Every structure is written in C-alpha cells, then in structure tokens.
Amino acid sequence: MASQIMIDWSSPLQTEDGRENFPADQLDRAKYAEFLTHFLASKGAGSSDERHNYVLNLNAEWGAGKSYFLRRWAAELKEKYPVVYVDAWKQDYSDDPLMTVISSMIKQLREQAGKSEEDPLFKTPRKLIGLLKAAAPSIARGVATKYLGIDPVKIIQQADDDDIGETVKDRNGQDIDMGLAASKIVEHLIKDHDAKSDAIASLKLSVEEWVRAVAGLREKQHPAFIFIDELDRCRPSYAVEMLETIKHIFDIPGVVFVVATDTEQLQHTIKAIYGEGFDARTYLGRFFNSRYTLKAPSFEKLLSVHCDMKKLSESYFNDRNIENWPELDVQSEGSDLIPLKNLTTMYNVFSLSARQVIQTTERLISVVENLKTNSHINLLYLAFLLCLREKNQMLYDLVLTKDLIHQLDNKKQLHYELMEIVSASDPEKLSFNLKPSNLFSVGHANYLNSIADNLISDGQYELGVYQFIEVSHTLIKSVSRISNLRNEAIRSLSNRNQTPDIKNWFVIIAEIENKKSNYNNSAYKDLVELASALDVPESKIA
C-alpha cells in the first residue's frame, strides 16, 4: 500500500534543480492533485506481481491552467515516485512520437536514478529500431521497393489477375513473377510484424527496469507517473500518431499515464484527420481507462491568474485621474470588496468561454492603458459592446447605429433581440452605489424638488443587466431620446403614491454622470474596434 501524500500549493515553489518556478496556486487545484495521486497510486502500487497499469485522460478547457497543474503535480511527486513529464507540443517537430516519449523517459529516469549517460541500463534498446517509422506507410512502401525490387502499390492497383505479370516490371524493366513477388512481400510483412512485436516486448521490459532503478533510490515507490501534456495543441497528424504509438506501452505494470488534453479540442483535431462524421469521442475512449475533468475556475480566479487586474481597479483609476462610472467592483454585505463582480456578471450573461473572458479583459485593460488623464468613461458599457461583438457581430453593428426601438426585417425590435441574448440575466444582477443626496447638495436641476418625496437613501442597489444596457445605450447613443428618458423617470418618481423605482433613480444619476463623459457613441465604437484587434495567442495561456 502506497503511503499517503499531502499536497499543499499555497506557497510558490522552485524545483531543486532551479529549472522551474511555480507561483502559489490561485485556482485551488492542490486538492485535485492529492486526490488523483492517491487514486492512481492505488492502481499501480503493490508487489511486483500485483502491480497494474492505468491510463487517465486529464481534461480541462483552454485557459483553465492544466499545464501549471500537470507540471507542478509532476514536480511534487518526484520526491516519492519515478516521474516523467513530456510536453508533446514542444516536440511535435519530431517525425516519431514514440521516440519522443521514450527519449524523455530515458533521460528523466536516468537523472532521477543518478546514473551517467554511459550507463548501459539507460541505453536505447536496440530492438526499438523495429518500431521506428511504424506509423509511416510511405516508409514501408520504400522498404519494399528497395529490397523486393517492386512497388507494392502497383500490385494493389491491378484490377484483373490476368494482367499481373504482363504490365508490372521490376526496376530493370524485366517482367516480374507475381507469385514470387507476392510471397516475398508477405514474408517481409510477417518479419516486420514480428520485429515490431519483439521491439514492444523489449521496450516494456526496459521501462520496467528503468522504473525499478529509480524506485530503489531514496525510498521511492511504485507506480511510475508518466505525464503527457499539450497533446491537443499539436499538429493534428502528430497528435493522432502520438496516441496510436504510445498505446503500445500503456500496459506496463507499475506505470500510470496521465494524458492532459482539452478533450473537446482534441476531438476536433481527430476529426480533421478522419473526417467530420468520425466518432472521435469513442475513438479516444479506447485509449483511456477513465477521464477526469478539472472543474472550470470562476471568472474571478481565472482573471487573477491570467490578467493584470490591478489595472481595472478603482485605485489604479484614481492614480491615473480616470473616472469610471458605474463601478466594476461590488461591495458585499460584509463590506468586503468583490473585485470586478459587475464585469464578470456581464461575462456570465453573454456565456463567454474562458478564452473569450481572458481576451475581453485584456482588451479592456488595453483601453484603460490608453485613456488620457481626466477621462470619464463607462467601462461596463464598453464591456457590453466587446461581449456583444464577440458573440454576435451583426447585432453589434446594429446596436452601434440604431436606437433600441429600431424595427428589424423580421418585424422584431432591436431591444427584443438583445433581451433574448441576456435572458439568462434574470438571476444575474448588477450592483451600483447610488447617492441621490449628492444631487440635492449641489442642486443639479430645479426638477429635483418634485421627486424628493420618493428619495431613496444612499447605498448599494441592484439593477437588471438589460436595464443597465438600455439606459446606458440611450444616454450614449440616442441624443434625441435622452430628454424623453429623463422626463419619464421624473414623471414616475414625482408620483408620491408610487414605490421608489431603482431604475428611474439610476436614469437620473446616469444622465448627470454621462454629461461629464468625453466619450460619445462614435468614441466607444473606435475603442471597441481598436481593442478587438488585440488577440492573445493560445500558446500564452496554458
């Protein structure tokens, strides 16, 4: 029975060899590593005749931090287990995926065993040559042509037995005895198959010996953990070849494999090879004993890892003399600040993926970095435009040019189309600090006295996402409708018998804030178009 291992990633880690530095775990992943360690160790541990193999597909979507998770997990386990980590994407220039894995195993296990490069135990098995280029039919064809004096494809292409021997010639132009040629090809294929079988058997024995050499040191124990990362990012042909070739060594007793992928993306990769109608999910299932999916982190945690969030904080705005209203942050009931709660609510409403969330936030940050001193802007409305452009370019174009009451070709009004997109916002609310008392203290307009009876106290209030969009868009885009919007709010708030309406107070305050802004509809459009050209490559977000 393998001893229990406790995993704590609350602090940064530098590996003993100084090759890698890991920041503290911000996505609460350590508990998953501990759980999986115990699970996999129970599969591969035991006495020599009780050890088993196991292959786990670790699934996590793009941006969820699976590479950090796998690399730190591998570093953690080296204290107690033989460990090999293979970055498939960094080595997909290789023509032979199996050799990529084997060479990594030899090098890393040799180092962990404290052996030199000349140690005979860690030399590449000679019989392994029988596996080289096993997945390349063109090589086999070349071998047949070289040693048999005939291109086997020509035999296959013959449609009529009577033609064989009459139209197929050897390299010297002589007629070929097709019976003899076919016999030689079959003989060669059988020998080739036997050589590959012998090579696989020899390889498995070698891996077991390498693992034993490491397990005998520093009280390390079985199983050996082989981590294969970034398979979904490899070129399609290489990813498929990697799976097809390493399956030969999956069944080594006392060895567990963890293959990390964005499984959905990998399925697309496989379909690129075999066609859209191919059942990629079933195909992948035959390689793995089970699949373990890392829970997607909250947007707040995701952004704290991938983006410089201090540049969207109120303190940063204050340092830059930038005024942003309404706020992106939300104050909780316990007076704790929930960073960017309004922003992530907007992301949730539009059902953005992790990739889209990171991209949109980076674009917002790029806008803030380019704002001039004393700017006054509505970043939450800008986030709405960025989200809409990401999800529905056609609707985004309409919103920029039309009022929300604009009638579309299908006889629907534009605002109904928008409401359908944000319909999931029913449970989602934005939170704003409203301070009507400030309006009276500075006397913004004579009409305020008429609504004093329905005055709400200063504090934090909630507003539906669509209501926020409707008000902000009207104030920024529809100059002709601003007075109508304000007058409707005043008329409603002037009714002493009516319960105070948060939306109407938001209209009053938002109109005054919008008058301070130096960004009109055209300016917001320019900001969106400039920022949307910024795209962070996938390779930068592990």
Automatic annotation (TrEMBL):
Q: Quick one: where's region Disordered?
A: 1-21
Protein origin, superkingdom? Bacteria
What SUPFAM superfamilies does UniProt report for this protein, alphabetically? Answer: P-loop containing nucleoside triphosphate hydrolases
InterPro entries per record:
KAP_P-loop, P-loop_NTPase
Ranges of residues in domain KAP NTPase = 51-295
Name the chain's protein.
KAP P-loop domain protein
Organism, by scientific name, is Shewanella loihica (strain ATCC BAA-1088 / PV-4)
What lineage does UniProt assign to this protein's organism? Bacteria, Pseudomonadati, Pseudomonadota, Gammaproteobacteria, Alteromonadales
